[in-house]
Amino acid sequence: MELLKVRDLKIFTPDNRSLVHGLNFSIHAGEWFALIGESGSGKSISAFALSALLPNGLRREVQEIQLLGKDLSKLSEWELRKIRGTEIAYVFQDYQSAFTPYFRLGRQMDEVMQAHTDWSKGKRQTKAWEALNEVGLEGAEVYRRYPFQLSGGQLQRAALTLAMMMEPKLLIADEPTSALDAMSANTVLTLLARLKNEKGCAVLFITHDLRCVRRYADRVAIMQNGSIIEAGPKQEVFKNPREVYTQNLLASVPPLYNPPRRLPILGQEPLEEGTLYATTSNA
Ligand SMILES: Nc1ncnc2c1ncn2[C@@H]1O[C@H](COP(=O)(O)OP(=O)(O)OP(=O)(O)O)[C@@H](O)[C@H]1O
Prior knowledge:
It is built from ten helices and eleven strands. The protein has helices at residues 43-50, 77-83, 105-116, 121-134, 139-142, 152-164, 182-199, 210-216, 234-239, 244-251; strands at residues 2-12, 18-28, 32-37, 59-61, 64-67, 70-71, 88-92, 170-174, 202-206, 219-224, 227-233.
């Protein structure tokens, strides 16, 4: 089932320079849709444009942005506010920005629930504790903390909890792990995949991490210079990339297994074909 359908999305600078030149794509309910491509190709601003969150000065033109039978491009800011958080939610690379630094996390989670539900204070607190516990945080404890009292990985898990609080149908994750160390990134990704499956939401995943795309994505779209140049099921695109740009992009990722033979280091045995890339000094 088609959850989101975007037709002819264009984005312009204040001086009318075209940054995104007419994107067309759809995301199916419950799927992991990866948007990849070089830096500056327009992935983030396209994602922001979906719910009219473009930075000041940038302008959007679009034929339609259908989400669950509603055309988001025709909604007022007031109507969009109700949709953000409940039907479409965001997590960003900059997890700090998900929270106001001088309010406790609990208060910020409470505000989201208060805005979108008629739950009692007690029920809201229970829901927040449960949701934090679900992502491996100590709910009752973290609820009382300020953002600066959590590590980056913990804060990103809390940001994910906040985004998923109202069980949106579409989660937009814009490089959610690129500011984290490898362990925390892995925890957040595993969590994201688990929440996606449990809650049945679709994920629009913006990333440079092609290994992660290979692991989690159902479909991929490749952006270059403000256009989607290729899109399709992950297996097809990875196996038979049509565009030279996609071929080069995919070729730039060293495979985890069966890497190409490496030149031997003087005085050392060459690495056997099929060994993992070494990460120590003989790598
Ligand atoms: N507020 C702004 N005013 C003018 N140009 C902008 C603004 N924000 C972004 N841009 C430009 O829009 C283009 C696309 O930016 P965007 O952040 O979407 O790229 P991206 O593909 O997400 O890159 P990255 O992978 O590095 O995050 C870039 O050329 C960028 O300089």
